[in-house]
Amino acid sequence: MRRFTSLLFLCSSLVIGTAPLAAQQPRHSPHETISRIVDGNRITIVYGRPYSKDPNTGAIRKIWGGLVPYGKVWRTGSDEATLLVTQQPLDLGGTVIPAGAYTLYSQVEADGAAKLIVSRQLGQWGLQYDQKQDFARIDLKKETLTPALDQFTIGVEKNEAGTGGSLHLMWESTQFTVGFGVKK
After folding, report:
1. Is the pLDDT assigned to residue 93 strictly greater than 60?
2. What is the per-residue pLDDT for 45?
3. Confidence at residue 5, expressed as pLDDT on a 0 to 100 scale
4. Beta carbons of 90 and 102 less than 8 angstroms apart
5. For residues 22 and 16, is the Cβ–Cβ distance under 8 A?
6. In the 8-state DSSP scheme, what is residue 49?
7. Helix/strand/coil for 162
8. How far is residue 49's CA from residue 31's CA, in Å, rounded to a whole number?
């Protein structure tokens, strides 16, 4: 319980601490907080959810290789960098991520390969990315998504047939996935 209280305090501090920064920057997309308990561990993700349509003109944007550039780090959402909080350590795609708060970035290549970047750096706006703060780079599996999604979505799913779960990054007709397990 004490550990949960500490993480709750940490998350509250991060939100309060970055509020002045968010107030200085105009948000361009709606924001979402998802929280899921998998194997007794609460996983929380806070992220911006951009649309395929340009918020100023309404024109459909090229997502992969355009808005999300190939070969470059992307903030995995919009506006503030995406926040991941886990109460217990996770084995994320074969890499153990200790309990705590992290920023999620991603990097997609033209050939379909993609990495999830877990960073120790917290509270930054946009792509204020520092590679020296990387905790891990984890391979993502690319899949076709049907139906297509107009709005970027992150999902955390529990494995129905056992322990662990999966993290999904979904937009247009593409889904990137990585499995995870909870370390006790």
Report:
1. yes
2. 98
3. 47
4. no
5. no
6. -
7. coil
8. 6
- Looking at residue 131, the DSSP 8-state letter turns out to be G
> What distance in Å separates the CA atoms of residue 102 and residue 71, rounded to the nearest whole number?
22
Which one-letter amino acid corresponds to residue 162? Answer: G
What residues form DSSP beta bridges with 95? 92
Inform me whether the pLDDT recorded for 6 exceeds 70. Answer: no
- Can you give the length of the chain in residues? 184
Each residue's pLDDT tens digit, 149-168? 999 999 999 998 889 999 99
Count the domains in the chain.
1
Domain span holding position 62? 2-182
Give the tokens for residue 85: 């909080």
**For residues 113 and 28, what is the distance between their CA atoms, to the nearest angstrom?**
28
Q: Which of 114, 127, 101, 90 is nearest to 46 (CA)?
A: 101
